[in-house]
Give the backbone structure.
Amino acid sequence: MSSRKTKGRGPTKKRAQRATSNVFAMFDQAQIQEFKEAFNMIDQNRDGFIDKEDLHDMLASLGKSPHDDYLDGMMNEAPGPINFTMFLTLFGERLQGTDPEEVIKNAFACFDEENVGIIHEERLRDLLTSMGDRFSDEDVDEMYREAPIDKNGMFDYLEFTRILKHGAKDKDDQ
């Protein structure tokens, strides 16, 4: 019966099956645990699957108001229901060949509502100390020591990512 539903999907279905068979080998146990925690944060209704409503609720909790088209696009990236194994598979596919600098930028970009490359330092502190793998205030202070923050308290995450990847510019270079 399921073959009728998936008929026409062909290669996508087979690709997903191949990918899920070795997805747990791509990550170490600590990474899998972190992905599980992230999955559980997104799975708002705790049914073991991420659906459109879960994505909407999770994004709303971050202060975003996503449109249906955006949510549909995200859901359509998966070849079927998104359980934890499929979630890992999607991340595995995305992370293969991904530039670590892009991964860091994208992590900060989730909180950049204006999509301009900056986040107010107090908002970022609040997010880092209250969500996910929580930072302590000392951790945030340490990060901010070398961070590019302007006189208005705006944290430039694009420049910060460059610093993490390539090091700070010498005073002579500026």
Notes: The two ends are 65 Å apart (CA to CA).
